[in-house]
Design goal:
By secondary structure, the protein is α+β, with helices and mostly antiparallel strands. The chain folds into three domains: 70 residues, Arc Repressor Mutant, subunit A, CATH 1.10.10.200; 85 residues, Alpha-Beta Plaits; 51 residues, 2-Layer Sandwich (Alpha-Beta Plaits), CATH 3.30.70.980. Helix content is 44%, strand content 23%. The chain contains eight helices and ten strands. The two termini are 14 Å apart. Its main location: cytoplasm. This is Probable transcriptional regulatory protein G3I67_02640.
Length: 243
Amino acid sequence: MAGHSKWANIQHRKGRQDAKRGKLWTKIIREITVAARAGGPDPDSNPRLRLAWDKANAANMPKDNVQRAITKGVGGADGSNFDEIRYEGYGLGGAAVIVDCMTDNRTRTVADVRHAFSKNGGNLGQEGSVAFMFTHCGQFVFAPGTSEDQVMEVALDAGADDVTTDEEGVIEVVCPVSQFAAVRDALAAKGLTPEMADIVMKPNNEIELAGDDAIKMQKLLDALEALDDVQEVYTNAVMDEQG
């Protein structure tokens, strides 16, 4: 995989997120509101809310903001009427893209998503057109230098499906969504802190893009992530570092 570094891709993604902290907070607040509305205000009995709460802490969001979002969700107050919508499409080189949104205006959102695809060399597909290329799962990523043996022992005992290490020493743990909380808590109990921990749509296979295709694909992903209604963007494209 010449020029491709999973670690570089992860750090690049985190850097883009950190650079858009205000936008990140907005996304987390929406997620907290919807999670509280769907499963109640107690993060200990609402795994989705617990995950959103953890993201809020990681983003240094004030607790008052978190509590307001929970109250809004539980009370059904103004602003909690978001619908969750998933769009699927294609980018450069036939790469698959999934766009998860929360919106109070479906017409606006689909127009914005379609425009981002068409302006950047992609196209919006039908529902189900690419989702089968991904697996809904929990994912933990550990930095090079982390003890592979320790991560593997703890994660597998807690219900993880797989633990892999790439040539750079990046450790990835994959688990069923239902086991995410158990694996997260077991790792934390042993002082194992992942660089990334989330419930994701993980591509079953990756498509490598290089040169102009990689540059254009990154522009498409950036355009989608910049949309106000977009919560997450997933792709099976891996951009060459040269791109």
